[in-house]
Amino acid sequence: MRIVKLAERKAEEAARRSHAVAGMREALAAYARHHGGRFLLFGSAARGGMRYHSDVDILLDFPAAEQAAAWRFVEGTCGEQGLEADIMPLAWCDSRFLDHIRPDIVVLA
User: Fewest 10 Å CB contacts: which of 14, 15, 46, 95?
Assistant: First the structure.
């Protein structure tokens, strides 16, 4: 029986999360194009620096009529990959927060 060290398990989980985010990007972009909006990925998922405990930070920029469905789509897509999502509509963000995350934003549309 091979003993797996905690550091190795953490590294494997970080790699799994990074791979899962990479696989989700096209699905999110296709959804956004089809529904007239966009997802803004930021944080460690956007920087390519997922850690073993990282969630997926996403802002929604969709017409009001599409926002709830887009939120559910993100939750479902992340859930299928075993990822936690931190979701917020772009309209809820103040300018200081947006200025802070702007260098990391990846637009999926």
Answer: 95
